[in-house]
């Protein structure tokens, strides 16, 4: 296997490779771009016209997606996977991955779309760097642009694998991309309805990529991910990389759609979330339920029919999202 296939090992040991570019016997070029960043380019004659960005480790303790990217990269480096797409592999927060923690100083996935400019420290610098890797990668005109930012969640979930689809004014969520996600094993998609500061929101809003955050199960340490079944996603990613994906039709195949009813924002240290510590993502909440309280007698009471909660987390910094209240979506506004 080509040494650059060991991007994870290089990243975990904070090593720069001796050789920055390597070519497989089939003419596939691997180029190390910087810490945790590697571009794969097929021979020109084989190029299918798709640019695919795969990121993982934006949160350092979410290891199953990191292991998945490593398997894909090994496949490319030992020629068992034959790329026809350009692919950029990114490990988002190397320092946090090395420590096995969600972040070091602050959540990097709240620093995109310009937020890093208002901040400082390690994660802010890395967010700017990741934006630049993505900007350069997606700068070639007239090519398909697809970004999957792979995560696992802090808590268990009633719906194990799901996607979050960013929002941009005037742009419709694509039914075809949803069908592709269903074929990749996603069971649900949350259609966002406002601009955001996550990595997938940046590539969607500013770089014109189809972009998604994928939640793939519960976060566990390296080597303890037997319960996270990524087979379906892995098979689909290999087909996308190899340009052998069967024609995607519009069938959503039972995919459940949700939209955001409200984001619960923690405004102060007085914020209190009235949910059991072991509540699962997608837990249903009945109308009238007092979900949270904050200073100045702010109360979050559930008013929506069919409401569910995802990512409840009272420990976030003040000013950040402490949970999302979602409702079923009919999919009528898909493009
Ligand atoms: O389990 C949790 O509470 C958080 C899981 C996670 O990291 N989710 C992403 C979602 C990003 C998005 O909204 O697209 C995050 O919170 O950064
Ligand atoms: Zn995450």
UniProtKB/TrEMBL annotation:
Ranges for domain Succinylglutamate desuccinylase/Aspartoacylase catalytic: 49-241
Any Pfam family the entry gives: AstE_AspA_hybrid
Keyword Zinc: yes
Keywords of the record: Arginine metabolism, Hydrolase, Metal-binding, Zinc
GO molecular function: succinylglutamate desuccinylase activity
Cofactor note: Binds 1 zinc ion per subunit.
Known pathway: Amino-acid degradation; L-arginine degradation via AST pathway; L-glutamate and succinate from L-arginine: step 5/5
Active site: 215
AstE/AspA barrel-sandwich hybrid domain residues: 255-328
Binding-site residues for Zn(2+), renumbered to this chain: 59, 62, 151
Catalytic function, reaction form: N-succinyl-L-glutamate + H2O = L-glutamate + succinate
Coiled coil: none
EC number: 3.5.1.96
InterPro entries attached to this UniProt entry: AspA/AstE_fam, AstE_AspA_cat, Aste_AspA_hybrid_dom, SuccinylGlu_desuccinylase
PANTHER family documented for this protein: ASPARTOACYLASE (PTHR15162), SUCCINYLGLUTAMATE DESUCCINYLASE (PTHR15162:SF7)
The protein, known as: Succinylglutamate desuccinylase
Organism: Pseudomonas promysalinigenes
Gene name as annotated: astE
């Amino acid at each position: 296997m080509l040494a650059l296939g060991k991007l994870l090992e290089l990243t975990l040991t904070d090593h720069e490779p001796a050789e920055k570019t390597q070519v497989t016997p089939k003419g596939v070029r691997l180029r190390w771009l910087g810490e945790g960043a590697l571009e794969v380019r097929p021979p020109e004659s084989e190029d299918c016209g798709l640019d695919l960005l795969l990121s993982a480790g934006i949160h350092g303790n979410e290891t199953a997606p990191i292991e998945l990217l490593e398997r894909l990269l090994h496949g490319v480096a030992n020629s068992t996977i034959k790329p026809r797409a350009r692919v950029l592999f990114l490990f988002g927060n190397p320092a946090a991955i090395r420590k096995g923690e969600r972040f070091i100083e602050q959540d990097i996935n709240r620093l995109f779309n310009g937020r890093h400019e208002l901040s400082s420290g390690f994660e802010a610098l890395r967010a700017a760097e990741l934006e630049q890797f993505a900007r350069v990668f997606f700068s070639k005109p007239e090519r398909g642009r697809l970004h999957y930012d792979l995560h696992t969640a802090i808590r268990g979930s009633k719906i194990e694998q799901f996607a979050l689809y960013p929002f941009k004014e005037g742009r419709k969520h694509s039914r075809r991309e949803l069908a592709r996600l269903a074929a990749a094993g996603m069971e649900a998609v949350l259609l966002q309805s406002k601009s955001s500061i996550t990595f997938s929101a940046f590539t969607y809003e500013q770089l014109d990529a189809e972009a998604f955050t994928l939640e793939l199960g519960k976060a566990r340490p390296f080597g303890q991910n037997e319960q996270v079944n990524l087979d379906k996603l892995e098979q689909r990613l290999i087909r996308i990389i190899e340009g052998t994906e069967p024609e995607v039709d519009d069938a959503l195949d039972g995919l459940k759609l949700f939209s955001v009813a409200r984001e619960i924002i923690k405004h102060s240290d007085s914020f209190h979330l009235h949910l059991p510590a072991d509540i699962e993502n997608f837990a249903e909440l009945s109308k009238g339920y007092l979900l949270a309280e904050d200073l100045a007698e702010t109360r979050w009471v559930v008013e929506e029919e069919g409401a569910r909660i995802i990512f409840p987390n009272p420990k976030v910094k003040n000013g950040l999202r402490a949970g999302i209240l979602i409702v079923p979506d009919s999919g009528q506004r898909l493009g």
